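user: Here is a favour to ask of a fellow structure person. I have my own habits and do not want them to colour yours. Could you put it straight underneath, so I can go through it closely?

assistant:
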Amino acid sequence: MGKKIMAVINPVSSGGKTAKRWPKINKYFKDEFANFTEKFTTKPGDAVKIAKEAVEKDYDYLLAVGGDGTVNEIVNGMLLAKTKNLKAKLIIYAQGTGSDLSRTLNLPKEISKFIELIKRGKSRKIKVIEAEFSNSEQEKENRYFFNVADCGMGAEVAKKLNEDNKMISGSLNYLIKIFSVLFNYQNKEMKIEADNKLIYQGKTNTAVIAHGNYFGGGIKVAPEADLYGSSLNLVLLKDFSKLGIILNMIKGYQGNHLSHTLVESHQAKEIKIITTEEVKLELDGESVGFCDASFEISDKKISVII
């Protein structure tokens, strides 16, 4: 493959294991691809800048080596690039704590199979979602995401994970954080609109805005979501008790929770969440701020190697 690849590596992803694994993984890529460049992130926001510059320098592929948060930054960087026609394609080599987007895409983990996937070059265009929310400085901010956003308990779990050193990676880390947050968490009052219609108003554990199917390290929270479609899947986990969340967690991993009386699933182009108290928000596993928030399916698309 003669095309240019820019690898964006988050060395602290997967509890720092990515930094240890990369020298061996890197050898496979450099042996197979002549025009292969790598750059490491050192702080939040680095992947945005690297991706933006790579697109503006006419790289053909952006290779995300990290978790869903790394992918999120690269997507935002690609869309910020000053280019008339976005030709660069995204490759996702999942190395994160959750890596839930790769589950929906069913991407291979074995390096030899992953390299074959790149060589095959098959891609599909995926629409991004635009979110507007209040950031940590209580200023309005707009940001794109690919997979899942949520307001409520799920965002509290994401914040705790982001603050943690993630020495324990994968689904186990999510489970530990879910239980640690659940112990003190109180459901929040939310008013939720979909396509300008009031859908629900009342106490809510978590409101999920999904394009992909999974969040939380493998919980199939939105089995009705279509990553390649043109609508959002709103999943409401309403006024669950703490015991109710625990008892239905297994169903959540299997995607069998939608039949519960305290769960609703809706399809919409635009979703608004209005709150009267502080409710945290996460996008693609990254704690970004607070609701009130709005979400809209965008016409902007990213080509992803699948």
Notes: The mean pLDDT is 93. DSSP finds eight helices and 15 strands in the chain. Helices lie at 17-32, 46-56, 68-80, 100-105, 111-120, 153-163, 171-182, 242-254.
